[in-house]
Amino acid sequence: DSGVTQTPKHLITATGQRVTLRCSPRSGDLSVYWYQQSLDQGLQFLIQYYNGEERAKGNILERFSAQQFPDLHSELNLSSLELGDSALYFCASSVGGTSNTDTQYFGPGTRLTVL
Amino acid sequence: AQSVAQPEDQVNVAEGNPLTVKCTYSVSGNPYLFWYVQYPNRGLQFLLKYITGDNLVKGSYGFEAEFNKSQTSFHLKKPSALVSDSALYFCAVRMFSGGYNKLIFGAGTRLAVHP
Q: Per residue in B68-80, pLDDT tens?
């Protein structure tokens, strides 16, 4: 168990809908990262927040947004969902924000299915 | 271009035999390299990382990895494979891309250990 928690474990929804994925980092970690894992794209970095502020951006679509709250938990919002958004969404956390040597610890993921 | 590659989609090995999962990288500057393992329906688990120092890095579950600067490789190894090692293995490199420091993952290698 990495100490990173994600809810829900599974989510089934329809095209055009909006969902929110939630992540709680390990105790003491200030950074939260979101990744998307799909069969065709592999593991793709979406976005990072550090202590409430956006720190780095990856291949995140405009339909997706995230935020990190004062208690350091984070939410990833996915809107106008398309079939291609079906994937595993992982959250990871690390102690710092910009260090190249920090280890990221991953949560169990949320499996999103868009019908 | 900066990248990380795992040249084998799948590696098959008999239980008790040594295993190697290959990873090569192409980054400017010092490479910071990581290995993660993903068991079915689970999140990624951190195995080990290379930051600096000794080229042979020891990690969890008896795994180790050898950093080779001249060959730009960071192969994952284990002297004696177990059936329970069967999983998906990801190599990752921390690199500066798109204006940010990001953890970029290889496509993954599926390890199958046969009894």
A: 999 999 999 999 9
